[in-house]
Amino acid sequence: MASTLIESGTILHLAAKLAAPAQLSSVCGTALQMQRELQWFKMVENLVHPYYKQSKNMDNVTAQVVFTKEHKNLA
């Protein structure tokens, strides 16, 4: 199935964004912060239609790529 270019991205693209510093600081340690972020992303990923998992945003990237870029410093 070909991926679709969606101008503003999908809800999965939004879930892939790094949480606000105030939310991240509620969990001690970068490993636990990353775990929480990954759990959130996977939960949203399980809710979206499979068609949208490979959809690309206006930057021509999937939500998985957004997640990887956004969380680079936590990794």
The percent range for helix content is 40-55%
Low-confidence stretches: none
Structural class, judged by helices and strands?
mainly alpha
Which H/E pattern describes the elements? HHHHH
Our Rg estimate from Cα atoms comes to: 13 Å
Q: How many separate structural domains?
A: 1
Sheet of most strands? none
Q: Which band does the percent of strand residues land in?
A: under 5%
Overall pLDDT metric? 88
The total strand number stands at 0
Separation, N- and C-terminal Cα atoms: 31 Å
Molecular shape: globular
The number of helical elements comes to 5
How would you sum up this structure, described in words?
The chain contains five helices and no strands. The protein is globular. It has one domain (11-70). It has 75 residues and is mainly alpha-helical. The chain has helices spanning 11-15, 21-24, 30-47, 50-53, 63-70.
